[in-house]
Amino acid sequence: MSSELLNYKDISISYGEKKVLSHFDLDIKQGDRILLKGRSGAGKSTLLKMPMGFAHQTSGNLYFNNSLLDSNTVWDARKRIAYVSQDLDIYEGSVDEFIEEVFSYSFNEGKLDRTKLRRLLVYLGFEKDVLDMNFEELSGGEKQRIGIIMSVLIGKDIYLLDEITSSLDAALKEKVANYFLERKEWTLVIISHDDVWEKENVKVVPVGV
Amino acid sequence: MEIYDISYLSLVACFLLLVIPVFVSQYLKLGIIQDTVVSVSRMVVQLAFVGVFLTVLFDLNNSIVNLLWLLVMLIMATHTTISDVGLDLKKLLVPTIFSFIIGNFLVLLYFNMFVVNLENLFDARFLIPIFGMFLGNSLRGNIISISSFYDAIKRNENRYLYSLSLGAKKHEAILPYARKSLDLALKPSIANMSTIGIVALPGMMTGQIIAGSSPILAIKYQMAIMVGIYVSTVMTVAIGIFMTIRSSFDEYGILKQDVFKSTNA
């Protein structure tokens, strides 16, 4: 058996009648950094959501750790994979309440490291009282950074990052990209229009034509 | 004590009072005359039907017929719940009806057996009105909880998926929404209990007193019925949410879009 984490085999994606991607293959090994490039609507986001079971291919198979990803294995995949989308759609409650909620899940129990949380908040340019703020008071970029911090705090090793730097200023884009790229043991699959991700060791994979 | 019957002539006298709202509407141009006429006529027809029907049912007092009538009430309640909240009837029919049966019928049996101490648990005179009171309240609760739950989870779809991607099991991701909608559904019942007797005298108690019962007896019944209503509402809404969840989320833990009526296109 190979050491591949994710294998996309002969994947085709259609939205209704419209075929957007045909016969796509991709093998992702531990420690790979993959940047998916392609025009919008080419199926990149769908490819990124598939390992979480949030979107499905029209045909072909996806394997996680050499087993077919289906409704049984997806729950294991979700334990190892973090999917971070471009916007964190939360309207109610404070940041801290949400953090408490997430760390009350049995899978995350006892994992909340407040020191690391504070360090990450400072690293990504937050004032300390952001935890008491309500989500509706946060800007898109601030929500985006909270989303990034949460996924890192959970401590997973495969990250699916969907335009996570889109609403950040140039300095923060750089910081976020560096943070992820510096951790060599992590596996990253990235969708982004920002060139901060285009560094050496990042493999660009074209999606669609 | 004597029971004061209302003759049909006195009933007509009562309807004469409706001249006042008609006058008010005319004077202030409220435009509610037509609505009033329609509503009052509907009330008369519906209650006349129920009056005749209940008379027959009570005279017959056959347990099987009584239970069949409860079934009709249940189906009506289920249909109202689902069509009121804009969800697909077929998908949620079984879980919703199940929640009404467990929530109301079990409490009703307990009530008739241990509280009223009936010899015949299916006596129409108790079975039907008490079930009606339980059902009416749990119906309102179910509509609030189910509609607010599916509303919230649809509105927060990305947040919900985000919870799943942060390691939540299906029930852990769903629970915050379920908790909030149950809270919303139960608040009116709780508020109702704490203000009863001060803000308003409940209809059942008033009815018993007018019909000649002592206020103490009426109050005992009222307390018992309030507890019964509260318990059956809690059971119905809790079971309602958790039973519909089973059939409205797929194996990946994602909300099925076809539970909503409007997205069938």
DSSP, total strands of chain B: 0
Number of strands of chain A: 9
| Largest sheet report of chain A | 5 strands, parallel
As residue ranges, the low-confidence spans of chain B are none
Q: Topology as H/E string of chain B?
A: HHHHHHHHHH
Task: Indicate the radius of gyration of chain B in whole angstroms.
Answer: 22 Å
What is the radius of gyration of chain A computed over CA atoms, rounded to a whole number of angstroms? Answer: 17 Å
Order of helices and strands of chain A: EEEHEEHEHHHEHEE
The CATH class label of chain A is Alpha Beta
Plain-language structure description:
- The complex is a heterodimer of chains A (209) and B (265).
- With 209 residues, chain A is α/β, with parallel strands linked by helices.
- Chain A is built from 6 helices and 9 strands; from the N terminus they run βββαββαβαααβαββ.
- In chain A, the strands form 2 sheets. In chain A, strands 6-7-8-3-9 form a 5-stranded parallel β-sheet. In chain A, strands 2-1-4-5 form a 4-stranded antiparallel β-sheet, with no helix packed on it.
- In chain A, a hairpin with a 2-residue loop joins strand 4 (59-64) and strand 5 (67-68).
- The two termini of chain A are 31 Å apart.
- The mean pLDDT of chain A is 91.
- By secondary structure, chain B is an all-alpha fold.
- Chain B contains 10 helices and no strands.
- The longest helix of chain B is centred in the C-terminal third of the chain and has 34 residues, at 215-248.
- Classes of the chains: A alpha/beta (209), B mainly alpha (265).
- The A-B interface holds A 52-54, 71-72, 74-75, 78-79, 81-85, 87-91, 101-102, 104-108, 147, 150-151, 154 and B 155-159, 161-169, 172, 176, 250-254.
Quick recap:
Chain A has 209 residues and is α/β, with parallel strands linked by helices. Chain A is 28% helix and 26% strand. The model of chain A has no long low-confidence stretch (mean pLDDT 91).
What topology emerges from the helices and strands here?
The complex is a heterodimer of chains A (209) and B (265).
Chain A: E1 4-15, E2 18-29, E3 33-37, H1 44-49, E4 59-64, E5 67-68, H2 74-80, E6 81-84, H3 95-102, H4 114-123, H5 140-154, E7 158-162, H6 170-182, E8 187-191, E9 203-206
Parallel strand pairs in A: 3-8, 3-9, 6-7, 7-8
Antiparallel strand pairs in A: 1-2, 1-4, 4-5
Chain B: H1 8-16, H2 19-28, H3 33-60, H4 63-84, H5 89-115, H6 124-155, H7 157-165, H8 170-195, H9 203-210, H10 215-248
Helix pairs in contact in B: 4-5, 4-6, 5-6, 5-10, 6-8, 6-10, 7-8, 8-10, 9-10
Keywords (chain A): ATP-binding, Nucleotide-binding
GO molecular function, one term (chain A): ATP hydrolysis activity
Domain ABC transporter (chain A): 6-209
